[in-house]
Amino acid sequence: MSRTEIIIPASTSNLGASFDACGLALALYLKVVVEERESGFEIVPTGEGAEQVPRDESNLIARVTRFVAEHRAQKISGARLSVESQIPLARGLGSSSSAIVAGISVYEALSGERLNEEEFFSYALRFEEHGDNLAPSFFGGLVTACVVERGESRSLVTVKREWPTEVKVVLAVPEFEMNTAEMRRALPAELPLYDAVFNIQRAALLQAAISERRFDLLSEALRDRLHQPYRAPYGPGLSEVLKMNDETDLHRGLLGVALSGAGSTMIAFASDNFAEIAAAMRDRFASRGVRARTLEVEVDNRGRRIE
Q: Tell me, what's the pLDDT at 180?
């Protein structure tokens, strides 16, 4: 029986002003070992959220695999999937996107078929709208992703940039979850023109700052008037940590801070002094009675791997 290992990175999206448009792959991984079996899917989960993950055909990875197989008229008998996750669930780190990318990849492993990018993302978007998470989990690095109509289906147009290795990431993951759909409903239906221009300018600034290695501009590029001010009040401690983006001169090595996805994780970009920055983030959550764990992680510039 064949055996394939699939490795999918986590992702952080929105990156301040780049709402629904830009994401970054992180070196936290969903690893799936695929072993063919005669019938049905058996899921053996370990790691983050293992107790919450279905172990049968209702598992998201299995559902995505079956969906793609049915749409492509391919017969998939079944598989044993050993799933090890380092990605916290419901914390704004793309856990569902990584599972969707994994499910399509399981289909490819079992069928022997390789989908092109347009096909791959057209299936992925059937399960969620977050191209800014799906694309980094697939490509790695910093990815700008735009949803486009392709006849009756939709796919993504993407541009990937290599993330500079000298800029590291510190994550503060609080003990509470935030529901993405609820946080979407927290956003205003309309935005003043001035605020829209504010975000467009800073979304463009982020790309230019990374391209030209102007890391001193990251704190400005991460400022936002579209989602962070409306979501942060729903999580105790988020506003306090977000204020660090206005205080980079007080924390040596800190380049900028943002809400990761819809939350609840906060992400800090830094060039140095990682332990002290992590401690400051924990302390700000603690000031609101919330415990948070912190992780110092690299950016994953490789993306999905099938071995």
A: 87
